[in-house]
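Sample A.
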Amino acid sequence: MKQTRMEIVSNREIPIVLIYDVEGIKDPITDEVIGGEENEKSTTGVVTEISSQGTIDRFLTNGILVEKGDIWFSVVIEELVDIYETITGAIYDGKHYEIQSKDKKGIGERNRAEFVGRLIS
C-alpha cells in the first residue's frame, strides 16, 4: 500500500511550507513558557484548493466547516515525525493558512498526515 501511494502521488506533489511552534523554556515559578518561536519547514504535498471543487462554497469535513479559499493537503508522515503535534500553519502559493484540523492516515500503517487549512486574510 505504501509503495502504491508513493507512485500515485509522485507527480502530484508540490512545494508547501509548514509552520510549527518551537517551545521555549518554562519559568520555574510561574510555569509560563518563555521564548517560544515559530519555525518553518519546506516540504512537498498533495494540495487541493477547495474553490477548485466546482460550485461548492462550504461543506463539513471531520466536523470542520470548510469554505471557499481553504485548502486540503497531505504530507508524507516521515516528514513530520518531530513536528506533527506543533504544526499551526502552512504557506502555499504565497498565501498563509491556519491549520483547522490534522489527522494521521493510512491503511495498515500510518503513511501520511492530512490537513485542512483556513486562508488567513
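Sample B, a different protein:
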Amino acid sequence: MQGINVLRIGMVLLALALAVGCASGVAQQQVGVDKARPMAAEWAQLRQAKGHFAGGEWRQDLDAWQGRKHQLMQELAAEVLAARSDTSAVLALLGEPDASVTVDQADYADWQRRTEWQGSPGPLLWSYHWRGQHDQLLMAFSEGRVSAVGWLYAWE
C-alpha cells in the first residue's frame, strides 16, 4: 500500500515539475519578446534613415561597424534564433524582409555559401539590409520557424 502512495506522490511531483518547467519556458519566451520590442522599434526608425550605402551621407549610427543599427540587428537576430520564432513573429518584430529567396531560386546557393551562419539554414531565407545590399542579416526558416541567422557581408 505504501509503495502505491509513494508512486502516486512521485507522479504528482513529476506533473508539477513539468507544469512549472513549461510555464518557465513561456515566461522566458515572453521576456525575450518584451526585451526585443523596444529594440525592434528603435531599429525600425534607423531602418527608414538613409546612410551612406543607401545614397545618403555617412552616419556613424547607421553605417559604422558596430554602429547602433548593426548592434540592434545582432541583438534581434539572437533573440529570434533563441526563441525559434515563427514567420509571423519575425514579421511582427522586424517587418517585411528586404528580400527573400527559396531553395529553388538562383540566389539561394550563393547566399547560403557566403553567409556566416549560426544554426542550420533552411529552405527559406529572408534578408534584412544593414547597409543596403552591401551587408545583410539573413534569417533562415525551416518548417516555418527560424533555424539559423547569419551575416552576408561584402567584405570590402
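Observation for Sample B: Residues 6-31 have pLDDT under 50 and may be disordered.
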